[in-house]
Amino acid sequence: MPRAIDGTRRKNRRKKILDRAKGFWGRRSTNFKTAKEAVARAMRSSYRDRKRKKRDFRTLWIARISAVCRAHDITYSRFMSGLKKAGVVIDRKVLSNLAINDPDAFTSLIDIARSSSGVQE
After folding, report:
1. CB under 8 Å, gap of 24 or more: what pairs does 42-49 form?
2. What pLDDT digit, counting tens, does each position of 52-95 carry?
């Protein structure tokens, strides 16, 4: 009677890796050894970039807000400081969307920030 060496465990383990490697280029999607390395790297990158995505979006929102503020002759820091002193609690994502989609509302927020900061520019 032949001896059962590894059953389906080996196949399942390899299949899991190769399934994750689908769409990779060349041998990285078919050869287990190279696919294992490629998948490990891809998983590290995806973990790291899920954290980085939050940073990148916040940077984008700040850049958009800052650009519209400069067009209205106020700096980003003065604008945010004025909103904080006025008690306006709006996050940067919403401010960015307002700056793009509703310039009139954003202009009124700039006026609020100017009046509460006490600095007229």
Report:
1. none
2. 999 999 999 999 999 999 999 999 999 999 999 999 999 999 99
**Cα 63 off chain centre by:** 14
Return the sign of the alpha-carbon dihedral for residues 88, 89, 92, 96. Answer: negative
- C-alpha to C-alpha distance for 88 and 19, rounded to whole angstroms: 49
Classify the C-alpha dihedral 117-121-69-103 as positive or negative: positive
> Whole-prediction pTM value?
0.77
CB contact set of 83 (below 8 Å; sequence gap of 6+):
90, 109, 112, 113, 116
d(CA 31, CA 14): 10
Tokens encoding 1? 């009677």
Residues with Cβ < 8 Å from 10, sequence gap 6 or more? none
